[in-house]
Amino acid sequence: MVPIKEYVDARDDAIESRLGAKLDKLPSSDTVRNNIWGAALTVLGILLAVLAFGGDRFDAGIGQADSRQTQLERDSDQDNSMAEINEKLDILIAGSELKGR
Does residue 35 sit within a domain? Predict the structure, then answer.
């Protein structure tokens, strides 16, 4: 028979060695800190990539006044051209009606 003191000491030593082995497997605070910084930098990089790729979609109407004025001028020129074409067509139609009589 083993004395109780030796049994308890042996059991404590076994528990300490298993606990020590498990604690050695845990990551250190430096490793955890590096992983957190790495994840944060990755998220930041993804955000910058999205903004760089689609940045022109986030300007929320800045610069639309210039394009609106340009479009209005273009529309006015087209309206004038269409009015001239309509006048010429009216002249041609009137001429063809006179010849047909």
Answer: no
In this predicted model, what pLDDT tens digit does every residue of 62-93 receive, in sequence order?
656 677 888 899 999 999 999 999 999 988 88
- Phi then psi for residue 64, to 5 deg, are -75, -25
Number of domains in the chain: 1
In a domain, 94, yes or no: yes
With a cut of 70, say whether residue 60 has pLDDT above it: no
The alpha-helical segments, DSSP class H, found in 26-63 are: 29-54
Segment (H or E) for 78: helix 64-100
Q: At 93, which amino acid appears?
A: I
Look at residue 78 and tell me if it is in a domain.
yes
**3-state class (DSSP) for residue 2:** coil
